[in-house]
Amino acid sequence: MAKSDVYLVTGGAGFVGSHLIDRLLELNLGHVILLDSFNDYYSPIIKQRNVALLEDRYPTHVFDGNFIAIQGSINDEELLRMIFTKYKITHIVHLAALAGVRSSTSQIGKYMEINYSGTQLLLDLAASQKVKQFIFASTSSVYGQTDKLPFVETDSCAQPLSPYAATKRAAEILAHVYHNMNELNITILRLFNVYGPRGRPDMMPFKLMRACIDPTCTIDVFDDGEIKRDWTYIDDVIDAFINALEQQYGYEIINIGCGNPIKLSTFIEHIEHLSGKHISK
Ligand SMILES: NC(=O)c1ccc[n+]([C@@H]2O[C@H](COP(=O)([O-])OP(=O)(O)OC[C@H]3O[C@@H](n4cnc5c(N)ncnc54)[C@H](O)[C@@H]3O)[C@@H](O)[C@H]2O)c1
């Protein structure tokens, strides 16, 4: 990676995106362009705070024009063209998405538009501008119904169980077409559940902590808390993105997880122990 590189981080105001930009600016790797629609899937105020934190932490980068935050959608083709022409993007980290599994069941069209069609627009521009690297944030949800455990990247992932997973898998497959037609370097990182500071309010760690301080918040414990999830700390996830940016694999899919799934009931016990509070179920 060279100092003249220009990184476009879509979804940069969100949880993972704001941490990635923090690291890119800290390492002083090049110019960083944040593109985010600040949608209301969860409070846009949280996203504005994430960006304000970056601007406070890196005032010189802002002053020098090395960090630019743009509010807009990856579905706005004209805006994308303007960004690519003006900033000569060399690397794309594509995180912008609707990311909720449950909410995807009632908004399939919206998920298709952003997670699939939006990704296609970016791939198109990435190919025509011959960017060096395109990193796409996918999800462990693509494994869906499979008997191949632990999840392995060579699984066909042909039986996703939610619209969210289906749109991400479809985008992964489309990315392969762009790699094949244009020799675009594409690395797909399949994230497992990510946790850490500035975590998403719709995810379990945040919900549990809220339930500790607000007894009116209850937690739905399905399956007697036996359900297991693999949790990955945000800094480790960001290490994976930085490593992926340094390599050009052609087309590669990589699982990014901890490899140590824990039961929901155990997770709740830990949070109760650490907070000294009881969580209402
Ligand atoms: N956090 C996790 O545990 C996890 C797990 C698996 C995969 N992922 C994937 O990682 C990526 C980042 O997830 P996150 O947890 O940071 O989610 P997030 O919701 O915090 O961030 C996504 C960002 O994308 C923005 N966005 C949505 N639609 C957009 C559009 N049309 N144009 C521009 N911006 C748009 C949102 O405003 C938001 O800030 C997503 O693609 C998600 O599917 C996350």
From TrEMBL:
Gene3D superfamilies: NAD(P)-binding Rossmann-like Domain. The keyword NAD applies. The keyword Transcription regulation does not apply. It comes from the Eukaryota. Residues 8-257 form the NAD-dependent epimerase/dehydratase domain. Pfam families: Epimerase. Keywords: NAD. Belongs to the NAD(P)-dependent epimerase/dehydratase family. This is NAD-dependent epimerase/dehydratase domain-containing protein.
